[in-house]
Amino acid sequence: MARTRLADRLAAARAERVAKAALRTRREIEAREGVKVLVGGQQLTSFCGNDYLGLSQHLDVVAALQEAAAWHGVGSTGSAGVSGHHREHAAFEREMAQWLGYERGLFFGSGYQANLAVLQSLLREGDLCVQDKLNHACLIDGARLSGCELKRYPHTDVEAAMRQLMTRRDGVAILATDGVFSMDGDRAPLADLALVARAQDAMLYVDDAHGIGVLGPEGRGSLAVAGLGPREVPLLLVPLGKAFGGQGAILLGNANVVGHVAETARPYLFSTAPAPAMAAAMRASLRLIRTQPWRRAKLASLVARYRRGALARGLPVQESFTPIQPILLGDNARALAVSKALETQGYLVSAIRPPTVPDGQARLRVTLSCDHSEADVDGLLTALAEAVQARPDPVTA
């Protein structure tokens, strides 16, 4: 049998993506100021970023980054275990752990890297990981790469999670979930999941990428809203690319568990540590999150304004009360067409298609930031109503 040519496989795969209107192209952002971006010479108001609190360009955060880079350089020079663990990293880990009430923190270069590291380090063949079907891909991939048995329950179905944990009584068990689901914007039933995990002697692990900074007192996230802490959720991941406005992620847990990850997780051991300057910038973001509650208050007001306006205009609104407001359109080509129609009106709202979401659930993922004005929100709603109701001609990319 002749060997398959890679070029033939890639051509066939691309042809299939074309047929399904599933091609993905990158936009080049030429300039950005808050929610205003320049793309192809056209200024657009972006409603598809995750800078929920407007901190990515805050002067205090930028100044902290620049000052630390001047002192420590651009890179960390090595992995954390060799030469890359700097004073700024250590200070940020301590401050995050203290803020959220955990014993120890561990700074990673990205949330994806962190989830691969955690699950591969803690789980192995013979263990069990139970996850919500709508968890982020990195949680799913981390479990798969660990060699454990992965079971996925229907979205937010606590009883199904319980049944799946009961199928295997030997080995270690981890129940893993997003705090806020990145494509639907709804919150996980954390209080109920914590009860299930306790009853089944499983560790509850929460990735709160879209809840931290946005929800709860001081922005302490989904756990604070649910009235939970380190006792109920022994392991918490705080990605920093959303409300914190930067890069990386902090793993929080007890000293033994976090120490085991630091000493054994291959994605951590064999990656260059994040830049010390990024840790300094994230420390500045943390101070702003804790001391400027008006950002969360304004964001919540804009979310409520968007939802009222969308309902009044007959737009499809999902059960989300977070800054993530999806508009389900179903068909890939239709989602692309509505996104393109919005762009002609001056709004950047990317179409989200499989495999990011399940087949048949293509959508626009509208995200709000405290940098938006009420006029921005009202303008988007008017443009959305026109675009969704007009049924514009489909496009393929």
Give a structural overview.
This protein has 397 residues and is of the alpha/beta class. Helix content is 44%, strand content 17%. It contains 15 helices and 14 strands. The protein has helices spanning 6-19, 59-72, 80-84, 87-100, 111-122, 137-146, 158-166, 190-199, 221-226, 255-264, 266-269, 276-291, 294-312, 332-344, 374-390; strands at 29-33, 36-39, 42-46, 104-108, 128-132, 149-153, 173-178, 203-207, 235-239, 249-253, 324-330, 347-348, 351-352, 362-367. Strands 4-10-9-8-7-5-6 form a seven-stranded mixed beta sheet, sandwiched between helices. A four-stranded mixed beta sheet has the order 1-2-3-12. Helix 9 links the parallel strand 8 and strand 9. Helix 7 packs parallel to helix 8. The mean pLDDT is 95.
Oligomer: single chain
Give the low-confidence spans: none
Radius of gyration: 22 Å
Taking the alpha carbons of the first and last residues, their distance comes to 36 Å
**How many E-type strands?**
14
Strands of the largest sheet, in order across it?
4-10-9-8-7-5-6
| Shape category | globular
The sequence of SSEs as H and E is HEEEHHHEHEHEHEHEHEEHHHHEHEEEH
> Roughly what is the average pLDDT, rounded to an integer?
95
**Main sheet makeup:** 7 strands, mixed
Number of distinct helices: 15
* Alpha-beta content class: alpha/beta
Helix content: 40-55%
Strand content: 15-25%
